[in-house]
Amino acid sequence: MHILARIKFVVLGWAAASLFFTAILLVSDVGSHKPPFFAFSSTAIHFALWALALPLLSWCSRTFPLGRGKRIRNGAILLVIAATFGSAVMLAQWAIVYATCFPYRSQYPTFALLLHSELQRFLPADILIGIVIVLALESWRVWLDFQAERTRAGDLERQLAVSRLDALRMQLHPHFLFNTLHTITGLIAEQPATARRMVVSLGDLLRFTLNDTSGSFRSLAEELEFADLYLGIEKLRLGDRLILDYDIDSEASAAQVPQLLLQPLFENAIRHGVSRMPDACQVRFFAQRDGDQLHLRLSNDGPLRSQPSPPPAFGVGLTNTMARLRLHYQDRFTFQYSDRPQGGAQIDLWIPYEKMEAKNSVPNRPEEVYAGNASRAHAGIDRG
Length: 384
Hints:
With 384 residues, the chain is an alpha+beta fold. It has helices at residues 3-28, 36-63, 71-100, 111-188, 192-211, 220-238, 250-253, 263-272, 316-329; strands spanning 217-219, 242-248, 256-258, 281-290, 293-300, 334-339, 345-352. The chain folds into 2 domains: 3-155, no CATH class; 191-352, Histidine kinase-like ATPase, C-terminal domain (Heat Shock Protein 90). It is built from 9 helices and 7 strands. Helix 2 (36-63) runs antiparallel to helix 3, helix 4 (111-188) runs antiparallel to helix 9 and helix 6 (220-238) packs parallel to helix 8. The two termini are 55 Å apart.
C-alpha cells in the first residue's frame, strides 16, 4: 500500500474510532454529565497515541512473527510489547489530558492521585487494545503473505502452461514438416513438377507460420486458412482421390480456437484414410455454434476394419492435440473418437465458444458447402 494511502487510512480510522467511542462514552455516562469536549478530546488523544504507535507495533510484529519460527517465544515477546505499549499510551494520554483539558482538578489535585484512582480502570483496557492491534497486524501480514504466495503460484502456473504449450507447438511443427518432406522426396523422381509445386506450397506454409504472432489462439477462419496450405500440399500429391467437403456456419467461423488445432486432425484423416484407399475418398469438416459450445466434427472415408478391435494408441499429432486442449480448457472440452461402420473414422470436439475478431473470412474453396444445422454425432477419427 502506498505511504499516502496508509496515512489516509490511519487518519480516517482514528477519526471514526474517536467519534464512535466518544458517543459510547457520553451515552454510558449520562448521569455524570461529562463535558462533551472533554470526552471527545481525551478519546481523540487516546487513539492518536495508538496511531503513532502503529509503525513500531508493525515493526515488532514483523520482527517476532507468530506464523513461523519460535512461536511461543515470539508470542510471549509480543504480549510483553503489547502490555508495555498499553501502559505507555495510558500514561501519555492522561498526562496530556491532565495538562490541557482536564475539568476535575478539584477532585484530583495531582496527576499521581489521578493515576492511583484510575489505573485499575483504564490499564487493562489499554493492554487489551495493544494485544488486539498486534494480532490484527499479524493477521494482516499473514494475509498479505498468503496473497503474495497465491499470486506467485498463479504466475508460475501460467508460465508453466505457456512453456508447455510452446514445447508442444515446437514438437508438432517438426512432425508435420518431416512428413511433408518425406512426401516430396517420394515424388521427386516420379512427378518432379508436382514435387516443385509442393516445395513452393511448403514455403508458403512455413512463411505463414513464421509470420504468425497472434498468440495461442486465432479464429476458426484463420485456422482453416492455415489448414488450407497443408491441404493444398496433400491435394497435389493425391489429386482427385482427395475430396474436401465443408459445412461451416458464420458464427463458428468467428470462434476462437487454439492454434494448430485442425492441421493434425486433417493430416491424421489423410494418412490413415485417404492414403490407404485406391479410390476417391472424402474428408468432411463441420463447424457450428451450439449454445455456449463450439462443435467441430471431422470425418473421413477409409478402410473398413475386418473385425472389432480396440483403437490404436494416439500418435504424435492427436496426442499433442489432446495435451494442448487440456492445457487450454482443463476439463471444459469433449473429445470423442469412433470408427465409422462404413469405414474410416470421425472425431467430434466440443470446446467453449468465444468470439474472436477474424482478420480473414472463411477461405473460399470450390469444394465448400455451407449447410444448415447438422445433427450432433458422437464418434472420432483415425488415430496417428
